[in-house]
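Incident review: delayed structure delivery

Summary: a single-chain prediction request sat in the queue longer than the usual turnaround. Root cause was a stuck worker, restarted by the on-call engineer. No data loss occurred. The affected request and its eventual output are reproduced below so the record is complete for anyone auditing the incident later.

Affected input:
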Amino acid sequence: MPRLVNRKELVRSVDVKILTDLVLHDVLDSSSDEEDEMLCETDGSSSEDDEQIKIAVVRYFATQSRYLSARVNSPKTKELAYLIFQSDELTFKRNARMTRQAFFAVVDKIGSHIVFRNKSHHEQAPVPDQLMVALSRFGFDGSASSLWTAGSRLGIGEGTVSLYTERVMYALLSLEKTVVTWPNTSERATIKARIEKNQGFPHCLGYVDGSLIGLQEAPSMCGEDYYTRKGSYAINAMIVCDDLKRIRHVFAGFPGCSHDHRVFMYSKLALNPFKYFSGHEYLLADSAYPVSDIIVPTFKKPLANSHENTAFNTAHSQARVIVEQTIGMLKGRFQSLKALRLRIKNKKDHEFAVYWIRTCCMLHNMLLDDEYDEEWTVEDDGDDGPIPNPNQQAVATERGQPNEK
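Output delivered after worker restart:
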């Protein structure tokens, strides 16, 4: 949406000027006698009135105008967007972060959503165009995901880029309960059997790990809380996945200074475990997580130094690498998660960042059958270190609700 920060600042400064003048006028009135008042009325009344009229005129036009300066229409062309849709498969996949077939499968899922319908006679842009705009922001990091870059590449304005992105997020999140789901009883039995056969951990439902979703700049709202031990600003996201790299639960929203232990203890998994686990079911986690009935972490030193516990930690890490690969695929395909180009000034901005994270997690699940491109795997400067190879064989709003069937 168009930024109105400068206009608001002007209106605020004018209001401060008006209030200051009123206070000074009251002080002068209370401290002056009748003769001073008569002198003021004869000498300065005309100039004061002119000044007040000027201030009132400035405030009126500032509140009635959308922009402070004349708008310059930049030349735009949709030829680049047309070329993307007409390009070869490799070029299309680089831009859309998915194959053409997967792209139009997503279009089919969200195309009928009411958010893409206008009440007026002015029709919206086609849903594929709007989805491509959103993916151009989700899929790239740095300036490549900026409003200006996306707009210039696709022949639209910055405000339109923001609007299309919000529409696509709204439509996708309406499907979240069917895409990011906690396994039901039958699914849990299947998952446990696969993990026990392949990794040797009986009753294991999957793996949990925390990841720092970077922010391009420090939030103006409680910025120090977002500052991480890595020397950057981020939002903490707890990811739970199964052995097939499907994200089963997402808990994102805690600021970057929060420890993984603390985030987990406030999650629904910890607060209401009987709703998600039964019998001896548990998740594998690293040593940052607490030992409990539903969490089996690796041993910490000095216990980790014994031969038996070292062997356990090795087997544990070989199994748990799957969650690191899952997060690697998530950040590799949607590289905006390395450093979100979002300004967090208030609670609404923070919530939008969380919705962004959850949308990318949804798309990850929707694209599990779509081939992951190795060129997306890059060095990650966030909390997770280098992104593991997703094809390597393995020897916190909150989503992922239980669905018993």
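Verification: The mean pLDDT is 83.
Action items: add queue-age alerting; document worker restart procedure.
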